[in-house]
């Protein structure tokens, strides 16, 4: 069934006419060694169905055993988000049928989340926004369906489906915000900043790989519009499984325009889930509220209640890493970056990368230069996050050290990164394979210098006459002859030496 | 069949282990004798769904080899056992009495099976049961009913009728049952055998195909109280694979059984539950029960009447909680990964295959309970049904707690009636459910309970069960009191009750 949707309202008009309310649910896969309720490995990318056992396959008679490491991670996440930690809470079964759900119920938490009532702050365009946190609860991931033979990759129209249960039972933490209000036209950026902030926070806690492109962090975006901040909430849509920061921003933006179009046309927004299409930049309808299932939640009888000891919780709280709001000013001061430079660093998500690069021995300015220019450009071209590039902070540090040693110039360094990105190996291997070393051997250079002097007697005369800047043309000739692999400063030295002028 | 083999199958588990340990018979001989007995009588009884002769003989030979090497073995080494078909055993068909799991061979062992193997127990095969343990007669098995060895036209109880009948018919001296609302004790009562539902959490549920997770408990079936204690000890104790398993030492059940067999119960306080007698109870059952109470007094126990006013709501609460959990537990039977698959012809969607399979694979009683539970958990009804039932559960636990302030154990008849004729209650689910009136409260409260024979009802000559109940983790009290009653009655009868059972016709 296709329903005709009204035209989108241009974004600026939409946010001028309506007040935006958002709610964001983020699912984080924990990086525990084993799954939530069994001993199977959680490693990503293994052969399908090789990381399974009776419990995560839901075989008859199998039982869950709670992963205590996951409980600890959940509590630390909650504490880092300023949440209270439940003295006593239970798991619940969320009952629904789906082939990638081995038991046809998901073991989750319902009305007794382990963490609740927190808040965290994000900054967008110099303004601070407080994001109220409703809860952070534990649950298990489902398996992964692959629908074969259809045009869309979705279940409809597929010939058959394959299910990989390696993901079934991976520990998830779902972090749910309260309604986020008062963001105005910045709503999409606030949504993005919040997800980016969570990503940084979770990474600093060391609880997750936070690889959005691998789905270890994914966001469900609830958006609704109302005429004025005093008005009751409008009907919301929920765009599911958005898995890049860029998409978070785009999807919110799109939904605002779409909702405005519907309301302007005098129609009613349907409460439904939406699918985000990265390629076309639009959302399409999923399940509506009328089709929504009754999950028949009830307390999980196979698990005993979780009652974290207070002393332990206090201990975890005391051992939390430095919060981003403290860490950022500290790093900025240490690196000597201006506010503007720091904002750029945060915008491209390069903070951790630069910190690690500096830690590997690179000067802060050089680290910033590589990540924010050459590498940010590459990431943008490929449509991936900066940290998803195969280039690591250690690579950047190596390249910069070669530059500092005069073995590479910036142009060659860029070629080294190109090679690393193309999968040609480490920077050292790329330098080796592509033969990118600067020609610093004076013997090889001398020939090129002699040639240049012989070919340009008039320029040589000018230089002798005191016009030292004219030597640039000679340097250019030598660089051309050596295909750029010479150190320009050294070439200049040799030329001036040969001509017999002081330099 | 020779006299020796006849003798071997008549021995208790304790005696059997002794015979093997002393080298009077090999474990393989014992296993063969039981396999022969199964071959001779199971055509009439139908206690077994699957007989694993090969596996049994291999396990028996292993016991014999160990004995030959002089290795120390446990008190049940070489003793044959019948395993309820709800318990996963690696590589051996496990159907739960359902078409849904026809042909499914678990790739893993339940903890109970692991411990049985470690104890050198010889598993003969898998016993019949009501489908997914839902029923009180085994008539809800997809593979046909089991017959009561006392009267082949009557039910052997359920859901573990196969396990109880196997023990009563001398097909095995021991069996494993599971008890969610009485599925060990009610079959024990109507077949003249002993059955124990341990404290909830006392025996691991890992590998027990779940019916109702908060109620299910595996336990021993046997012909003597001491045998039950030995089996209880072999399978019980903490298991890290079951989060609801109690992390504490098992109560000293074997010692208690031996102490009870000395005969006296001086200082033991026994409470008779007022609410578990009277209207609806067969007069012959009541008579034997009152005689058993008199016997307890004669043995030195002090007997008082106690009231558990909320027991009257137990059945209603049970029929909300158990179906609710079952509706969720049985959701996994969807044709996607194992078991039956119907409609996989390229014409039907996965969702349709699930629906067709569940429609074809589940029997009417299972469907009735899934629907009941699905309804009870639905949004808008949850508080009124599941929520209220949980409150009743708390009140019943409180009744027990108050009673145990005054007494050490509680007693009642195990069932309101003796074994009823096959087919007589199939059309009336409520009448069937009422059979579990006395057994359900212990499941709801998580306590321990035993049924042992206390005579034949004078009105129909069929076995009557005495139920003894004890607080959680006081399972030893059951064994002390039970063994004392058993010893006194055996003196009176000149042997245990089963010696009065009619001989089954043996097929040549
Ligand atoms: Zn697993």
Automatic annotation (TrEMBL), chain A:
Record's superkingdom?
A: Bacteria
SMART domains cross-referenced by the UniProt entry: GatB_Yqey
Please list the reactions this protein catalyses. Answer: L-glutamyl-tRNA(Gln) + L-glutamine + ATP + H2O = L-glutaminyl-tRNA(Gln) + L-glutamate + ADP + phosphate + H(+); L-aspartyl-tRNA(Asn) + L-glutamine + ATP + H2O = L-asparaginyl-tRNA(Asn) + L-glutamate + ADP + phosphate + 2 H(+)
Gene3D superfamilies linked to this entry: 1.10.10.410
Q: What EC number(s) has UniProt assigned to this enzyme? A: 6.3.5.-
Q: What class of enzyme is it?
A: ligase
Keyword Ribonucleoprotein (UniProt): no
Question: Which UniProt keyword terms apply here?
Answer: ATP-binding, Ligase, Nucleotide-binding, Protein biosynthesis
Where does the Asn/Gln amidotransferase domain lie?
352-499
User: Assembly state and interactors?
Assistant: Heterotrimer of A, B and C subunits.
Role description: Allows the formation of correctly charged Asn-tRNA(Asn) or Gln-tRNA(Gln) through the transamidation of misacylated Asp-tRNA(Asn) or Glu-tRNA(Gln) in organisms which lack either or both of asparaginyl-tRNA or glutaminyl-tRNA synthetases. The reaction takes place in the presence of glutamine and ATP through an activated phospho-Asp-tRNA(Asn) or phospho-Glu-tRNA(Gln).
> What is the name of this protein?
Aspartyl/glutamyl-tRNA(Asn/Gln) amidotransferase subunit B
Could you read off the lineage of the organism from its UniProt record?
Bacteria, Bacillati, Actinomycetota, Actinomycetes, Motilibacterales
From TrEMBL, chain B:
Give the GO molecular function terms. glutaminyl-tRNA synthase (glutamine-hydrolyzing) activity
Q: Which residues does the Swiss-Prot or TrEMBL record annotate as the active site? A: 84 (charge relay system), 159 (charge relay system), 183 (acyl-ester intermediate)
Query: Which EC class heads this enzyme's classification?
Result: ligase
Q: Which reaction does it catalyse?
A: L-glutamyl-tRNA(Gln) + L-glutamine + ATP + H2O = L-glutaminyl-tRNA(Gln) + L-glutamate + ADP + phosphate + H(+)
Q: Which Gene3D superfamilies match?
A: Amidase signature (AS) domain
The family database entries (SUPFAM superfamilies) matched by this protein are listed as: Amidase signature (AS) enzymes
Entry's InterPro entries?
Amidase (IPR000120), Amidase_CS (IPR020556), Amidase_dom (IPR023631), AS_sf (IPR036928), GatA (IPR004412)
* Enzyme Commission number(s) of this protein: 6.3.5.7
Keyword annotations for this protein, in alphabetical order, are:
ATP-binding, Ligase, Nucleotide-binding, Protein biosynthesis
Q: What does this protein do?
A: Allows the formation of correctly charged Gln-tRNA(Gln) through the transamidation of misacylated Glu-tRNA(Gln) in organisms which lack glutaminyl-tRNA synthetase. The reaction takes place in the presence of glutamine and ATP through an activated gamma-phospho-Glu-tRNA(Gln).
Q: What's the protein called, per UniProt?
A: Glutamyl-tRNA(Gln) amidotransferase subunit A
Q: Which organism is it from?
A: Motilibacter deserti
